[in-house]
Write a structure and sequence with these properties.
- The structure holds two protein chains of two kinds.
- Chain A has eleven helices and no strands.
- Helices cover 84% and strands 0% of the residues of chain A.
- Chain A is mostly helical.
- Chain A has one domain.
- In chain A, α4 runs antiparallel to α7.
- Chain B is mostly helical.
- Chain B has one domain.
- Chain B is built from eight helices and no strands.
- The two termini of chain B are 29 Å apart.
- In chain B, 36% of the residues are buried.
- Classes of the chains: A mainly alpha, B mainly alpha.
- Chains A and B meet through α8, α9, α10 and α11 of A and α5 and α6 of B.
Amino acid sequence: MSQQSTQIPGLLAGLLGTLRRDLLLAWKRPGDVLNPLFFFTMVCTLFPVAIGPSVEQLAFAAPGVLWVAALLATLLSLNSLFLADHEDGSIEQLLASPQPLVVLTLGKTTAHWLTSGLPLVVLSPLIALAFRLPPGTIWVMMTTLALGTISLSLLGSVGAALTVGLHRGTALLSLLILPLAMPVLIFGTRTVSLAAAGDAYSMGLFALAAYAVGALSLAPFATAAALRISNE
Amino acid sequence: MWTFFHKMASPPHFFRVAKTLIPWLAIPGYALLAYGVFAGLFLAPADYQQKDAFRIIYVHVPAAYLSMMAYMIMAIAGGIGLIWRMKLAHAVAASAAPIGVTFTFLALATGSIWGRPMWGTWWEWGDPRLMSELILLFLYIGYIALRSAIDDTAKADKASAVLALVGAINVPIIHFSVEWWSSLHQGPTLVREGGPAMDPAMLYPLLAMIFGSSLVFGSMLLRRIRAEVLRRERRTRWVKELVLSPGGRR
């Protein structure tokens, strides 16, 4: 018995274990990862169709379009963050595990960012170029998207944990998360717009980074508490 | 001190105390409102710039203030309910939300009506306070939607408390971000901050409206909590005894 208890792996092993499991699951079901990406690309395509092909207008709207599309794509993927685990009961295993739930949810959220946020960041230069964003600002946009999607994944995990197992969970999730995500959207779009206009933009980057750090240190606790509540 | 809190946490005791408390809040509250409305509409002089349009602040300012106050009460009560597992706190949070959303809507509506003569537009996207208030409205709607989506009351209480706390941490950040955002717009300079000090004849009705509205808000909150407590405790003995006792519908 005592031997067994010494075999409980450490915190890092718990974190990496959940991370590895979720990444593996995503690898086996590529549709879950690709669908939000296609969605992101399609939303970005809708805007030129709707606004018109005028280059100046598109370049002006580009940061907003990219950011709104990224926000919606993240929301789309957030819905499935805990859903499969809830349906097959493996969330009960997470709750019953001797590891702190905070660490395990952080692992799941990290996996979510790696499979939804990071691909968006990688894909975004392509769309930015198509929208004629000045090439010099593309890395600014990628940085804001990287920092912003981290915050969105963390913030969204709280909402996903609160709404898991509810009917009409998807619509509710958007209702809960979108107002909370407003600072991320504001800082993200304005920073890119300022950079595109050649103004000083570092403050927006700092604010986004601060928000991401704050979310990283607080959100996992809220997510863990919410998971416990919704699986009572 | 602590025994007072423990006593207040007991629903039947709270139910009785709230009943005696309500008139003490409501009567001075409505009296102040009556004075404020009369003085605000008839005694206060018209503003030399805004003419009579400024009189809407007598509704707008208390509504905006109470919309934030109600959210704070909701979040703090939710936190108390989560941490100390106090059921009454959850009833407070559940009762504060509908009042808060009403005041938020009222603040937005009066602000918009005020904006029409002042800025020439019903809605000014560049004003950070309007935007913050609008996001606050969305936060309230999300909170109420989450509450109504969960059937189990105990679960709805805790889940919405987590949401209210996350929202409460975000509210200052949202306000800051919206301010930063709008400071970049070249929009019209809005209400002058630190402008000429208010004439006492204008100020006193405003103070009366703010205090009066707060008192009325308190009495409405207590009324709602009483109803909420009754609903939640409907299967307990004290409620049955209360209902069955002669003349005991209240």
